[in-house]
Amino acid sequence: MKRPFIRAFGFAGILLATLSPLQAQLDSGEPQFKGTIKWNPLGIFAGQYQFGYEHMLNDRMSVQLMAGLINQSTDQAYQNFVLGEQYRYEQQKSGFIAIPEFRYYVSPQDFGAPEGLFVSAFARLLNLTYDLDDAADEGEWGDLSRMDERMVFGGGLVVGYGYYLDNGLMLEAFIGPQFKSVTFDRTYDNPLLDEETGDSLFDEKFVDISLGNVDNEGGGVRFGINIGFAF
Predict the structure, then answer these.
(1) What pLDDT was estimated at residue 33?
(2) DSSP character string of the chain
(3) Is the predicted pLDDT of residue 166 greater than 80, yes or no?
(4) Would you place residue 88 in the very low, low, confident or very high pLDDT band (cuts 50, 70, 90)?
């Protein structure tokens, strides 16, 4: 579980070391704002509470860190009409996320960064724990409570635009490709159940309940909106 952390900080270090010479080659104009405090409003729908800070290096470049905690509870039930029984599980999702980023503003507007069109390279570290409690732990299947642990390391590129509204208020939107690798581990509370047997029984008991693909990896799309205050 330590290797994703090493990769994340290593990637961020290599990224900044590679791009920092660009600063000496560009006009280092002074931006009107030195930094922006940000909040990701869309994260709330996924139980993510993300805040961040963007620091302007000059009127075209900046570095940023978005970080946050994850906490979300769900409750799903399946009614087996043949047996006349209802099976239900409760899930508690918790963890953290960190996204270091380097930005280059292609066409800064009157105020310079952080306003205008930008491209950015980012790394992404995500740690999640899914605690699933089998609320209907009786019957032929028994207690199928389990713990899923997911560590995700990734990175990618996005294109976005920052808007200066008024009195320091900023709004930005971005989208781009991302790639991720996943370390995944699953443990059932019942020590007699290995992962293969437990998964088979779980699929039989909760046949109409979807957990989503929690161990997925590969390519995807990152998009979002941030609200900020520049100072």
Answers:
(1) 83
(2) --HHHHHHHHHHHHHHHHHTHHHHHS--PPPS-SEEEEE-GGGGGGTEEEEEEEEESSSSEEEEEEEEEEEEEEEEEEEETTTTEEEEEEEEEEEEEEEEEEEEEEEE-TT-TTSEEEEEEEEEEEEEEEEEEES---SSS----EEEEEEEEEEEEEEEEEEE-STTEEEEEEEEEEEEEEEEEEEESSTT--HHHHHHHHHHHTTT-----TT--EEEEEEEEEEEEE-
(3) yes
(4) confident
